[in-house]
Design goal:
The structure holds 2 protein chains of 2 kinds. Chain A is an all-alpha fold. Chain A has a domain at 75-254 and 276-292: MetI-like fold (Orthogonal Bundle), CATH 1.10.3720. Helices cover 70% and strands 1% of the residues of chain A. Chain A has helices at residues 11-39, 58-65, 67-99, 105-112, 120-130, 140-144, 155-183, 187-195, 200-229, 231-240, 252-261, 266-292; strands at 41-42, 53-54. Chain A starts with 10 loop residues before the first helix and ends in a 6-residue tail after the last helix. In chain B, strand 9 (203-208) and strand 10 (211-216) form a beta hairpin. Chain B folds into 2 domains: 4-226, P-loop containing nucleotide triphosphate hydrolases (Rossmann fold, 3-Layer(aba) Sandwich), CATH 3.40.50.300; 237-349, Nucleic acid-binding proteins (OB fold (Dihydrolipoamide Acetyltransferase, E2P), Beta Barrel). Chain B has helices spanning 42-50, 92-103, 107-121, 136-148, 166-183, 194-200, 218-223, 228-233, 264-269, and strands at residues 4-13, 16-26, 31-35, 57-62, 65-66, 77-80, 154-158, 186-191, 203-208, 211-216, 240-245, 252-255, 258-261, 274-279, 285-288, 295-304, 308-315, 318-325, 335-339, 346-349. Chain B is elongated. By secondary structure, chain B is α+β, with helices and mostly antiparallel strands. In chain B, helix 2 (92-103) crosses helix 3 and helix 3 crosses helix 4 (136-148). Classes of the chains: A mainly alpha, B alpha+beta. Chain B: This is sn-glycerol 3-phosphate transport system ATP-binding protein.
Chain lengths: 298, 373
């Protein structure tokens, strides 16, 4: 039986939907349309909102001609793949350990999930303190050898820092999905495999990873999307390195915000936003393709 | 080929004790069936032999070597699981050959042995299929193939036939028996199905609530159940029981006020005690009402089996099932006479459930019957 509430008047349902509609209108459609507007026009040197100059694809040409932009793209790609790889690898190891019911696994399962619940800027802030080269917990390594760790000075250190932040936050998320995936693998398969002579590592490679493949693929796409273009990346970069030093961590999402609101180059930032939106769409498309086509065993 | 020794093996999960000290010895090449209702600990015992379950206390040895602390892979057992536990992402050949692959057997040798095994279990044409594309019986064969390719010392079967339909079950039962004849490795087969147990076993072990109730050949167990539980569990339909007091003379008991003769020697020893009397449906006799020494019984209903029928009768609120042969007709609602032949009456103690008997019940001794196809 189909239970369905039928509204007699037209205004009541609209009233119920209104708060959400307003939110979408003001925070999604309006900005999105503005971005389009900005991306294809140029603000006159001395302002005047109504008299913006339509410049066609000039803004895009300028963005693509900029070497720093391409550097930012490659930084983003590097960041995305490394952070995703790291967080998935660690999450997998943890999930396997919890799945083996080692001592205390219930407790660890509980704790591993926490980081995902923390907002990215908070993670960034915490890591900023922990990894501060002069006073953080990490500072001790600099007493062994000066400047062994200094993300404020070395671009590579800064990149490592944001990768660790991102991985730390996303391990929890990956862990949940992997644990759920591992637990859905019938225990008897692992038992059969161990009767067949395999040890824990062999079992992971031969049985667990192949059967977890749909989950792993889903997580891979999700992690890549999030680290490449997601808000977490912005929050982490903004609170730890601010794109520095010397733009060594100037990933795309961060570059757009700093160009727009610090460089006041709205048109350039808007053009970059559109490129980013296009990339998100590509990623989402890939994601849907593969999530829809998830392999189902049995 | 290996002997298996189980010495005072116990298993507890938290505060629940699953196995209360099990002592068993399986001879090399024997086909042992462990039979019991669900939750009796039979699967746990099997998994402890396999190494999939920790042994709380006691000792399990294979070929004289204590295996308590050995990993499953070092025990030389292979196992057929109830749900087959086939690797869903591998085809039949890879499933069967997985153990060899893990052991690092070269590819050519592996392929040769896979082909050989596939032939034994009749899967030559299906080697490229994935388990999902197989029927229940075929999956069962893959599981068997996977178990035999390693040429193990011991085969363990964990209710392998319970997911099959009735017809296939009978067929696979025969094949398992045939396979055992061919490979003659020690086999331990866990089941809750008494027909499987009776037909497959050289040695039958009946378990209940974590205790071994009786060990013996299927026929010993059928004819001389050591406890009331074994009596009820073996045989279909189940043994009939009624509680009564042995007459002072020791040569009869009363059923609904009518005397039924029992073994006078045994009865004489237990004269005056209240006992549980058991008699199998196939040993009861239905005769025309009013026959001498027969108890008037109201016929409740009749179950047709084709080869015979089961007549359910009622005597003073007490239900009896009686198997009768083809050609004997009994009408529902009519009255017949029930006779209990003395030589088929089993007496059990009311307190302990143990069989009252002249001869001490021989446990843990069985003569493996010569393997018949």
């Amino acid at each position: 039986m189909n239970k369905r509430a039928v509204f007699k008047s037209w205004w009541l349902p609209v009233l119920f939907a209104l708060p959400q509609l307003l939110l979408i209108l003001f925070f999604f459609y309006w900005p999105a349309i503005s971005v389009f507007n900005w991306a294809f026009s140029l603000e006159p040197a001395f302002g005047g909102a109504g008299e913006r100059l339509f410049v066609g694809f000039d803004n895009f040409r300028e963005v693509f001609a900029d070497g720093e932009y391409w550097r930012s793209v490659s930084l983003s790609l590097f960041f995305a793949f490394t952070a995703t790889g790291l967080s998935m690898l660690i999450a997998f190891v943890l999930a396997i350990c919890v799945d083996r019911q080692l001592k205390g696994s219930g407790l660890f399962r509980f704790f591993y999930i926490w980081p995902y619940a923390i907002a990215a800027p908070a993670v960034g802030l915490a890591f900023r303190f922990i990894f501060a080269p002069e006073s953080g917990l990490i500072a001790v390594v600099n007493t062994w050898s000066p400047d062994l760790w200094n993300p404020a000075k070395y671009g590579s250190h800064a990149m490592i820092l944001i990768i660790i932040c991102f991985a730390w936050k996303w391990i929890g998320y990956n862990f949940i999905f992997m644990t759920a995936g591992l637990q859905s693998i019938p225990r008897s398969l692992l038992e059969a495999s161990s009767m067949d002579g395999s040890g824990p590592v062999r079992r992971a490679l031969d049985i667990q990873i192949p059967l977890l493949a749909p989950t792993l693929f889903f997580l891979l796409v999700l992690n890549l999307t999030e680290s490449f273009v997601g808000p977490d990346t912005f929050g982490i970069v903004d609170l730890t390195t601010e794109g520095g030093p010397n733009k060594a961590t100037d990933v795309m999402v961060y570059r757009i915000v700093s160009e727009a609101f610090r460089g006041l180059n709205y048109s350039g930032a808007a053009a970059q936003s559109l490129v980013l939106i296009a990339l998100i769409m590509v990623f989402t498309f890939i994601q849907f393709r593969f999530v829809e086509r998830r392999v189902h065993y049995k | 080929m290996a002997e298996i020794g189980i010495k005072d093996v116990r298993k507890t999960y938290g505060s629940t004790q699953i196995l209360h000290g099990v002592d068993l010895n399986f001879k090399s090449g024997e086909f042992v069936v462990i039979l019991g209702p669900s939750g009796c600990g039979k699967s746990t015992l099997l998994r402890m032999i396999a190494g999939l379950e920790e042994i709380t206390s006691g000792e399990i040895s294979i070929d004289g070597k204590v295996v308590n602390n050995l990993e499953p892979r070092d025990r030389g057992c292979s196992m057929v699981f109830q749900n087959y536990a086939l690797y869903p992402h591998m085809n039949v050949a890879a499933n069967i050959g997985y153990a060899l692959k893990v052991a690092g057997v070269p590819r050519a040798e592996r392929d040769r042995r896979i082909a050989e095994t596939a032939k034994i279990v009749g899967l030559e044409d299906l080697l490229d299929r994935k388990p999902a594309q197989l029927s229940g019986g075929q999956r069962q064969r893959v599981a068997m193939g996977r178990a035999i390719i390693r040429e193990p010392k011991v085969f363990l079967f964990d209710e392998p036939l319970s997911n099959l339909d009735a017809k296939l079950r009978v067929q696979m039962r025969v094949e398992i028996r045939r396979l055992h004849k061919r490979l003659s490795a020690t086999s331990v087969f866990v089941t809750h199905d008494q027909v499987e147990a009776m037909t497959l076993a050289d040695k039958l072990i009946v378990m209940n609530k974590g205790h071994v109730e009786q060990v013996g050949t299927p026929l010993e167990i059928y004819h001389r159940p050591r406890t009331r539980f074994v009596g009820t569990f073996i045989g279909s339909p189940a043994m009939n029981f009624f509680d009564t007091t042995i007459a002072a003379s020791g040569d009869h008991v009363l059923l609904d006020g009518i005397a039924q003769a029992i073994d006078p020697v045994l009865g004489g020893k237990n004269a005056g005690t209240t006992v549980s009397v058991g008699i199998r449906p196939e040993h009861c006799r239905l005769v025309p009402a009013g026959t001498i020494n027969s108890v008037p019984a109201n016929i409740d209903f009749v179950e047709e089996l084709g080869s015979g029928r089961i007549v359910h009768v009622e005597i003073d609120g007490l239900g009896f099932a009686v198997s009768v042969e083809e050609g004997q007709f009994f009408e529902q609602g009519a009255v017949a006479g029930l006779q209990l032949p003395a030589e088929h009456i089993h007496l059990f103690s009311l307190e302990t459930g143990l069989r009252l008997d002249d001869a001490p019940v021989v446990m843990r001794q069985s003569t493996p019957k010569t393997v018949a196809a």
